[in-house]
Amino acid sequence: MFILLIKGAADLSFIISSDKDINIEALMISRVPYVTIAVAVITASYKVARVFISEIMKINNQRLSLTKISIIAKDVSFSSEHGLSLTDEESYQLRTNLKMQMLRDHLKDYLSKDFTIELPKRLLGIFPAGKEKVTVKPEAIATE
Question: pTM of the prediction?
């Protein structure tokens, strides 16, 4: 698109410089559709690029937030375990519980309030009797 714009500008300057009796208004009006299309393509490209860049930044911020949560949970769990005689299993369980609580609190911003999960009523949902679905809200799962 850039090359076409430069080439068109060079052709236009050649036409104007070679012919002194040219009607500039008619020439400009004849170029309006081309300029309109060029502006539309450039605007659309800009908006698409802006959306892609903002999504990349959003994903990077989410990744950084999850990394921060992991580091904080690890440091807090190690410092709180210091001086206690816990087994490796108890330590792992408490550390996992802390991380899950922090992730749950962090993800509250990402899930909408009306988000529901559809779960099959039976384990094998391929049979006709198992096609019924149970709708569950995430808050109901978190409180159990």
Answer: 0.50
